Amino acid sequence: MEPKWLEWAKQMQAIAQTGLTYAKDVYDIERYEALRQMSIEILAEYTSISYEQIALAFASDKGYTTPKTDIRAVVFRDNKILLVQEKIDGGWSMPGGWSDIGYSPKEIAVKETQEEAGFDTAAIRLLAVLDKKFHNHPPSPYHVYKMFILCEIIGGEAAAGVETSDVGFFGIDELPELSIERNTLEQVQLMFEYLHNPNKEVIVD
């Protein structure tokens, strides 16, 4: 579970953003702005992220607050899972990233695999939808739903992309150091359960 201070900061930000969307009274607007300011200060105090970065990335959205969606492509070959090495932290993850406007979840999984790993794939089915706060990820200012989509290689070859430095396939007992911001060991192990049990039901957590 995420720490309480992070949960409170995200709730404060969501309340403030939604309030600013609908508020008409100038005093209500001032109160919501103050609440948003407090949420930024909490995150700046307890994380290594700068105040300016938080204000830009976390507290600049408009409209009703909703969770972000992170799409991960689950690709197997010869009983090994496809992972890419992230330039940002050197850790390894399943190809993927934030969902983009105009693309379906399956299209995102296919696009990210091609861009980050070089392989052309066909998206087969959804395996899991996981709420990031219930898993052992580092603290994040966002409320994130992580979608894991099984994909099958239909072409291409291994090639790193703009955000990745290496591509590889790994067995369950030979996993490299993971980028736990993007995927945890338990999540990768869960994907192997789907490899060994194709009829395993979709998990929504």
Structural overview:
By secondary structure, the protein is of the alpha+beta class. It folds into two domains: 4-57, no CATH class; 68-204, Nucleoside Triphosphate Pyrophosphohydrolase, CATH 3.90.79.10. It contains five helices and eight strands; from the N terminus they run αααββββαβββαβ. It has helices at residues 4-22, 26-46, 51-57, 105-117, 185-196, and strands at 68-77, 80-86, 92-93, 96-98, 119-131, 144-156, 164-170, 203-204. Strands 1, 2, 3, 4, 5, 6, 7 and 8 form an eight-stranded mixed β-sheet that branches. The longest helix has 21 residues, at 26-46.
Considering the chains and any ligands shown, give keywords for the structure.
35% helix; eight-stranded mixed sheet; Nucleoside Triphosphate Pyrophosphohydrolase; 205 residues; alpha+beta; single chain; 5 helices
